[in-house]
Design brief:
By secondary structure, this protein is mainly β. The protein is 4% helix and 38% strand. It has a single domain, classed as 6 Propeller (Neuraminidase). Strands 5-6-7-8 form a 4-stranded antiparallel sheet, covered by helices on one side. The chain has a 4-stranded antiparallel sheet with strand order 9-10-11-12, with no helix packed on it. A 3-stranded antiparallel sheet has the order 13-14-15, with no helix packed on it. The longest helix has 7 residues. The protein is built from 1 helix and 15 strands. A hairpin with a 5-residue loop joins strand 13 and strand 14.
Amino acid sequence: SGTRGAIIVIDLETGKGFRALDGHGSTQIDKTVKVMTDGKPLVRPDGRQPAFAADGIAISNDGKTLYYQALTGKTLYSIDTTLLRDGVSEAARAAGVKTVAQTHVADGLWMSKAGTLYLTSPVNNGITRLVGDHVEPVLTDARLRWPDTFSEGADGRIYVTASHIQDTNWFKPGAPASLKTELFSFAPAK
């Protein structure tokens, strides 16, 4: 994430890393997107809207496809993971980027064991899932303030945190610098 987006690739054996798709359009913020929460634009006290570049990320169960999206964006992309190896040219990587679907502002992505790609939806305190080339709602809940990070239990139950980002002092002067993260779970979509 950050103003200039990229996918950070780390070699787990050496600990060395590099920026892939650094500055590529698929990893950048979409300047036409306004992040909304509680029915209004999310802005800092000085009026600036946050700019979150490539943030949400998930990998297919076979490890062959990486899905990603800028948080300040509404397009889900994918790339073959072989193109993210060291030594592959940026031109080859750029040519391998695929548009998967038009989505919504999303922070977290999760590929379930069953092969369903879930997306958080901070705009409506909800969760969606990818079905073909579009997303459909799974659930909304007012307690799910800024759904953020996913996990999955051994029984297939999906867990998601609510990080309350819009309630922090970044956006509400006088609010605490950090708030308790809450954990929720739901049965996987059928």
